[in-house]
Design goal:
4 helices; alpha+beta; single chain; elongated; 7 strands; seven-stranded mixed sheet
Length: about 230
């Protein structure tokens, strides 16, 4: 469901009209602003880590002239993707077949002072405004040059910029309801409360699905404190 479909659904419920404004009209652009606000609300909801926002450096779609995904001899710093938010797992160096040639444990930047200078570790520095940088220790030697860098990370969500953009969330109708709520609030429409409640219901359902895993692989282990070994 891309933004155009989301906007058509929003407009049909708001105006009860089938012909939505063209992408060049102010109402359409206002709708995109409201839709991006909904994405922001989703991404920051209740401290939830959404499955859709986990990715890896090699899988990242970010394009930047400063983003380097391969090792250079003696280069210890590498710019992270612009959507990087938090690191996870470890930093891996991969050969052309995808095999791990070297692994770096990720530590917090303040822990560097307690590490041996010859130890293998990685840490991230920076902030959301200026961006993040991957730091490797020790400096990569010549035999590692050209290997692919990869690591897991949690990213910021992509916002709408065109009508064909598709949101990353599992239930895009949350955006429709949230857009309606904010439109009603701006016009002091009494239906604001019901539209907001509809949006929050969809959001809570998404969170429940996100945190429950699958029937074969639940995210939380069952309580076996009352069982007996071998019983």
């Amino acid at each position: 469901m891309d933004f155009n479909s989301i906007y058509d659904s929003f407009y049909a419920q708001f105006r009860l009209e089938s012909d939505a404004p063209a992408s060049t009209e102010d109402e359409y652009m206002t709708g995109m602003i409201l839709a991006n606000e909904a994405i922001n609300r989703w991404s920051n909801y209740d401290g939830t880590y959404w499955k859709e926002l986990f990715t890896t450096l090699q899988a990242s779609t970010q394009v930047s002239p400063t983003l380097v995904r391969t090792i250079t001899t003696n280069d210890t710093t590498y710019v992270c993707p612009t959507d990087f938010k938090e690191a996870g797992g470890s930093v891996r160096l991969l050969d052309s077949d995808g095999n791990i040639r070297k692994r770096y444990s990720i530590i917090e930047a303040q822990e560097v002072q307690f590490k041996d200078s010859n130890a293998a570790f990685a840490y991230f520095t920076g902030n959301p405004k200026t961006g993040y940088t991957l730091n490797l220790n020790p400096a990569p030697e010549a035999d590692l040059s050209g290997l692919a860098i990869d690591y897991d990370y949690y990213k910021t969500p992509a916002l709408f910029t065109t009508g064909t953009d598709v949101p990353e969330m599992s239930e895009p109708y949350f955006i429709v309801h949230r857009m309606l709520a904010n439109q009603f609030r701006g016009s002091r429409n009494p239906y604001y409360s019901s539209a907001k409640a509809d949006a929050e219901d969809v959001l809570r359902t998404m969170q429940l699905d996100n945190n429950s895993g699958t029937w074969a692989n639940p995210w939380q282990l069952g309580d076996t404190s009352g069982t007996v070994w071998g019983g």
